[in-house]
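ok so for the tutorial part 2 we go from a plain amino acid sequence to predicted structure tokens. step 1 is just haveing the sequence, like this:
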Amino acid sequence: MKTAGKFLTLALAAFLLGALLPGAADAAGELEKIKQNGKLRVAVFSDKPPFGYVDENGENQGYDVYLARRLAQDLLGDPSKVEFVLVEAASRIEIVQADKADVVLANFTVTKERAEQVDFASPYMKVALGVASPSSAPITDVSQLAGKKLIVNKGTTADAYFSENHPEIELVKYDQNTEAFNALRDGRGAAIAHDNTLLFAWVRANQGYVTGIDFLGDLDTIAPAVKKGNAELLGWLNGEIDKLIGEQFFEADYEATLLPVYGESVDPNTVIVTR
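step 2 — the prediction. this is what the tokens look like for a chain of 275 residues:
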């Protein structure tokens, strides 16, 4: 009888704990839920080559996509067991909070403000801001933007940086990367501010433009993000990123996706995270 009483007491305590912490059981079983679903849902860009884009055959490609397939391989045993959820910069937080994706790999720069809304795993990439402009009227210093329009994407670090540090500069904001770069081509702004890693690739593919400012602000990192409080998936990702760094996976990712675009113009050590 005493044993039965203890069992009932423990069962009641567990029930009450679950009632007080309604998200605890769900978070603890997140990896198992992904395995049961048979897919890892990963949020990526569709229009940000060479990091996340859809090619002419309708296939997802890029540095982040290459990583997503490896995560699916290691978690589910098959690199094809990944469901790509296409996002724009401003919707990356919302999509994981709404449980429409398990992981965000959309070139997501770690910031203090974002870390209050999502949980970031260990970083896998380095990045800073840059500014690209027409080579006929290059912007080589922020002071040259006074009285001019600067193109940015909504919800990006470029948007936040210039809004906070240079309110005197008029920002022209767009949701999609394609819209933003088309605005630069159409002369709707004197320059575009974006991740320098993206600008390095874009100016090489588009004659008549230069990255006049190739490093602005702080050196930041890019990392996977999960829903706030999802400790189990976060822990798995941290271990996975550490393992991949140890086996030089990101060097292979760089060679497969970024080197064909950058050529020898970029030092890979300024982009990838190594030990």
